[in-house]
């Protein structure tokens, strides 16, 4: 595992990069791979790229009958429902489209995603 100081974990610690095979769930993947190196996962910097990766993750869970709670389904996951109830956003384009549409000046869509995901996770 490698320490990378670029982006801190939700707890404020420097992230530790894990091999993907060592990640225990989607949040471990996010915290130890995607958050510290988002450009490797969302090459164009769009949340649509990230949402597509998460869709593939969800499909793999289904194909392999893995019992993992998955909150990041584009429009029907707990995260999407939380965004709709908390902010009243339309999810016609999924959570990625909603966040990209409502991102504040001075904040990237990826940074807004991580901030909102941390907020969502703190309510669980």
Rounded radius of gyration (Å)? 14 Å
Which strands sit side by side, in order, in the main sheet?
A: 1-2
| Strand fraction | under 5%
Secondary-structure content class: mainly alpha
Q: What is the rounded distance between the termini?
A: 28 Å
**Low-confidence parts lasting 5 or more residues at pLDDT below 50?**
1-6
Relative helix content: 40-55%
Please count the beta strands (DSSP E, at least 2 residues each). 2
* SSE ordering: EEHHHHHH
Query: Helical element count?
Result: 6
Give a quick account of the main beta sheet: strands, pairing sense, barrel closure.
Answer: 2 strands, antiparallel
From the spread of the alpha carbons, the general shape counts as globular
Mean pLDDT: 89
Write structural notes for this entry.
By secondary structure, the protein is mainly alpha-helical. It is 51% helix and 3% strand. It has six helices and two strands; from the N terminus they run ββαααααα. The protein has helices at residues 26-34, 38-41, 47-63, 78-87, 94-102, 109-122, and strands at residues 2-3, 16-17. A two-stranded antiparallel ribbon has the order 1-2. Helix 3 packs antiparallel against helix 5. The longest helix has 17 residues, at 47-63. It is globular and about 35 Å long. The two termini are 28 Å apart. Residues 1-6 have low confidence and may be disordered.
């Amino acid at each position: 595992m490698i320490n990378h100081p670029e982006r801190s974990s939700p707890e404020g610690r420097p992230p530790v990069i894990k091999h993907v095979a060592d990640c225990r769930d989607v949040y471990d993947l996010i915290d130890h791979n995607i958050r510290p190196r988002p450009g490797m996962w969302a090459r164009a910097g769009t949340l649509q790229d990230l949402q597509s990766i998460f869709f593939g993750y969800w499909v793999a869970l289904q194909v392999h009958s893995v019992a993992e709670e998955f909150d990041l389904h584009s429009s029907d996951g707990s995260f999407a429902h939380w965004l709709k109830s908390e902010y009243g956003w339309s999810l016609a384009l999924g959570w990625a489209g909603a966040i990209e549409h409502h991102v504040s000046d001075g904040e990237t869509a990826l940074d807004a995603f991580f901030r909102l995901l941390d907020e969502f996770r703190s309510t669980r």
